[in-house]
Amino acid sequence: MSDLVSLAETLTGRFSGSASKFAAGELTVTVEAARILDVLRFLQGEGEFKILVDICGNDWPQRAKRFDVVYHLLSLTRNLRVRIKAEVGEGEAIASCIGIYPAAGWFEREAFDMYGVPFGGHPDMRRILTDYGFSGYPLRKDFPLTGYVELRYDEDLKRVVYQPVQLVQEFRNFDFMSPWEGAPHILPGDEKAAMAPSPTSGDPGKKP
């Protein structure tokens, strides 16, 4: 823990505008998006965080800077992990860190695909999980749960087609009964419980 405290002090002292937070024994440092490459370059070099574990996002629709871009780094030599966050507004880009961590290529494409946050300087900034013609960003909190369109193969046209998603709610059967209440009807298999002998009735195979 002392190593993480020292790392937090180093980062907040070296990079103005950054702030550190400890939770569940983990360190999260929020930095300015404009300084992200400087921070990552320092951590990869002097900090000895050679491994980029992941890049992901988070969506806060009510916040001025709507998105968090989150970097998870690992140092094997120091046996430490650190989380770096940068806030990015909708329509804004953040610099790609492929030049520092080559593994960032697919992570950044996924963050772009799911949240719509572009990474400036990325050599191949296109979707990676959804289809090329997909509309919207699935992990934004205002994205509809059923999506916009669905993809299927049309037997008549003999090709793949897109069509609007239709959710016919009246055909769904919801059961809001509490799990602590018994069903008003006998469920399949319950009739066997009624036929079973009680524990006090003795061995049904023995004659009195």
Structure description:
The protein has 208 residues and is α/β, with parallel strands linked by helices. The protein has helices at residues 2-14, 36-44, 104-115, 191-195; strands at 19-23, 26-31, 51-59, 67-75, 80-88, 94-95, 119-120, 149-154, 159-164. The strands form three sheets. It has a five-stranded mixed sheet with strand order 1-2-5-4-3. A two-stranded parallel ribbon has the order 6-7. A two-stranded antiparallel ribbon has the order 8-9.
Quick tags:
208 residues; alpha/beta; Beta Polymerase, domain 2; five-stranded mixed β-sheet; two-stranded parallel sheet; 4 helices; 19% helix; 26% strand; extended
User: Strand portion, in percent?
Assistant: 25-35%
Got a strand count?
9
CATH topology of the domain at 2-128, by name, is: Beta Polymerase, domain 2
Mean pLDDT: 85
In percent, how helical is the residue content? 10-25%
Distance between the termini: 72 Å
Number of DSSP helical runs: 4
Major β-sheet, in short?
Answer: 5 strands, mixed
SSE diagram, text form:
Blueprint: H1 2-14, E1 19-23, E2 26-31, H2 36-44, E3 51-59, E4 67-75, E5 80-88, E6 94-95, H3 104-115, E7 119-120, E8 149-154, E9 159-164, H4 191-195
Parallel strand pairs: 2-5, 6-7
Antiparallel strand pairs: 1-2, 3-4, 4-5, 8-9
